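User: I'm curious whether this sequence folds into something compact or stays loose and floppy. Could you predict its structure so I can see for myself?
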Amino acid sequence: MDDQLWAVCYLDEGIALSVISRKETRCQWLAGENQAREFILTDYLHHVAELGELDPDQHLAARERFELLMMQFPDPQVLTEYLNDLTTGLTRIVWFGPLAALAEDYSDFALALRAHYWDEYGEDDEDPVTPVPEADWPYLVEAMDDFLLSEEY
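Assistant: Here's the prediction. I'll summarize afterward.
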């Protein structure tokens, strides 16, 4: 299962949002769960540290806390909730999980993405909650960029 595509998508909040007056969302596609978790511990945490102006000791303490949460809560959705509690006012993860879940899951973000996907790529008869067939997942990945810009989530 670790060989499938995973995504970490996050939305900047706080000062960055007030300065640019629009959502600033980033989505990083990664080759599997291990790489996605490593991204959170390195690149995402570095981003959080910059936004929060953490000194090196605080950055290290934050990494230790992130690692502990990853061990305690292996489920991506539960982990996301706890990580978001730590980064309130700075940034918020809107999706952390595999592409397969985006294509089939019933979470708010996955449902909104699929509704956008079917609106853009579907024939008029698809229900917006219909899972995206695996053969069409590359198009779902393509649709993500437009979806994040649309601010519908």
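Summary: Residues 13 and 90 are 5 Å apart (CA to CA). DSSP finds seven helices and three strands in the chain.
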